[in-house]
Design brief:
It is a single chain. With 548 residues, this protein is an alpha+beta fold. It has 13 helices and 21 strands. The strands form seven sheets. Strands 1, 2, 3, 4, 5, 6 and 21 form a seven-stranded mixed sheet that branches. Strands 12-13-9-15 form a four-stranded antiparallel sheet, covered by helices on one side. A two-stranded antiparallel ribbon has the order 7-16. GO terms for molecular function: oxidoreductase activity.
Amino acid sequence: MVKSWCHLCMRENETQLLVVGGGVGGVMAAVTAARRGIRVVLTEPTDWLGGVLTAQGVPPDEHVWIEQFGSTATYREYRNAVREYYRRYYPLTDEARSRRALNPGGAKVSDLCHEPRVTVAVLETLVAPLRGSGLLRVLLEHEPTAAETDGDRVTAVTVRSRRTGTTTVISADWVVDASETGELLPLAGVEHVTGAEARADTGEPHAAAVADPLNMQPVSVCFALDHRPEEDHTIDRPEGYDLFRTTRAVDWPEGQLSLTAPHPKTRKPVRHQFWPNPDDDPLAIRPDYADQRVGSMDRNLWTFRRIAARANFRPETYPSDLTLVNWPQMDYWGGPVFDHPDADAHVRAARELSRSFLYWLQTEAPRPDGGTGWPGLRLRGDVLGDTADGLAKSPYIRESRRIRAEHTIVEQELSLAVRGDAGAVTYADSVGVGMYRIDLHPSTGGDPYIDIGCCPFELPLGALVPVRVENLLPGAKNIGTTHITNGAYRMPLMEWNIGEVTGHLIAFCVQHKATPRQVRADEDLLADFTREVETAGIERHWPRVAGY
């Protein structure tokens, strides 16, 4: 059969590496491998690269040392490129333009809150020269539907165009599953787990007594707002509004459609405030990383994940701030959005919850002046890609299917309460670093918040190596973590590191005619590989810093 790249006649293709999923991990796996001479096909179900940072609309949550260390060199280049994009193309004030650590949104959750389209643009600049050279082909709006295997190898994956319905069989020597939910794992018969493990299996202090594969972190459907007080932008009352308005879950005495939410650590109700467009100085806002979601830092939810602070731009450029709504009130824990017979219905319900919360803000939310409702809140679907309902293209997925790996990272390896001054476990096969509290939101199984302090931790290569399959690697949140430790390893910075290392590993294996398992098991090969990733600017160990 003739293999062809032609858009119209494409039915079957061959490549060295197929990367399924165009989030930050998938992009970095593809870009890294292609830069090393590997021919790559990258597929993505939406029309935006970037996953959690773009299609899901979530600004990056990062650790306190991110401006100095604690990431790969390419991630630092990405952050610098976002800032340079604003300096080059946006009408910033002179003060904002001259600020080295420019934070376009002047937000409290991150030093780099910004509009998702900017990350889309930056990622497109990474892939553009590789696409031009023919080393990388990007298939947007394509999703996997089937996989073919031969023993312990994945030989081909069928993808379907969401736009035309055309299916394409892509044969590949190597496959990376960088999808948001680990979609390839069941299609290819790769051993994996979902949901919560039992304490008897992991020994984790916070694990459940009984395993529950359907007990997962909630999803959230984000949306962007500005405020035009002279206009009424109230949306139609959502059909599910009354149900969400009256439901009272554990730890939510006023329900989710309120400004009262449980403190993640204490589970006691915290009364937040909300008022649009405060007269604050966005250049003076600094994150309080000792407590990233509660306390003084998000008393006004408007500035929590603000993505454009009008004061950063020349007068009248932004009549209003833009804020990104990803708050506890729109966490949807009604049921899993994969591996469940009602998964699609739960995705729709998550979108309905977000629109219901918006309607509540517009009509019933208490105002500081004693009134109720902010009808001038305008849904800015154009900022998130012009979906039919004005919300983000995709739900924010906190928890994926996870491979059964040669090494599964458990709570005892990074918990502050367990490790204390000893710090997180140091791995001989470390291929990266990360830092985030173990952050579990109320779950589909009925668990409340689980919030655990962490030591700055490492990424062991063993967590990227499946127990059996030889040529498929994880490229996102689907590495060898547990339900508990996924809560720390799931952040975009870590996904970027995972994808980048996966790209290097595949290129190294091609060069040395080895498998990932052999690289990890052979002392000399492992030493050569870890030297390569260090030379590429991937930090493998932390300096002496205290966790939180």
